[in-house]
Amino acid sequence: MIEGFAVDLGGTKTAAARIVDGRVEDRVQTPTDRNASFDGQMESIAMLLRQLGYHGNGRLGVAVAGRVDSDGCWQAVNPNTLTGIDGKPLRGWMQERYGGIITVRNDAAAATLAEARLGAGIGADHFAYLTVSTGIGGGISLNGRLLESRNGLAGHVGFVSSPYAVRRCGSGRIGTVESVASGHAIALAGEVRTAREAFEADTPQAKAAINRSAAAIARLCADLTSLFGLDRIAIGGSIGLAEGYLPQVEHHLRKEPQLFQVNLTPAMLGHDSVLLGALMTAD
After folding, report:
1. 3.30.420.40, 3.40.140.80, 3.40.640.10, 3.40.50.1820: CATH of 4-109+272-278
2. In what order do the strands lie in the sheet with 102-106?
3. Which of 27, 41, 195, 251 could cross-link 17 (Cys pair, CB 3.0–4.6 Å)?
């Protein structure tokens, strides 16, 4: 049974929820200040939890954009997303402030857990979740167990190389999936302000940017399948679930040899996946 309070701190918004019997009962959120210091981000979380009536010593799960290592320290892989967190001890701060049972992990890893056990991954032994949004994130679940690493980098699939990319990514690498397939990349190549505008625009530049993003995600799906022998991949995120995007990914995936044409499906749990997964155990 999944019960307690959960936090989802992403690059765009920070949400908190009270979860009862595996369902989100109450939910509050606020825009994320990407330039806030670690203390500023913690105060934002504390404000939301106060609104929900949480004051400590209960079950609390915290999922955040960026890398969380096995010691519970938090830092960005792409500093352009969150500029001020600087490797601070997230789990330690939460434990000192609230006590009780505290879980901290990457947001895409949390969503992977929830989708694998409660959503699109049910029945798949080797499953991956990809979020295509402001950035590109994901996670791998093998035989029901989340793939994790001591340095917290496992699952950051947006930072692998792509043949469709040439720009330097915020991670410092050149030619990554995130640098060509993310919302920021779509807006830049589509010559609009946001990815949403690109989907609404009927221009060759916007259409080409979205198509290139879908091609890069399809190639990533084939690559992950070759590495992990995946049965299924769920696609989520604001772009991944945008109308018409997944069919474009499937179109490009059909160009791959049959062995690498993994089953694709839309993520099922929406905004609740990160919050639910934040409270789950990894095995």
Report:
1. 3.30.420.40
2. 23-31, 13-20, 4-9, 60-64, 102-106
3. 27
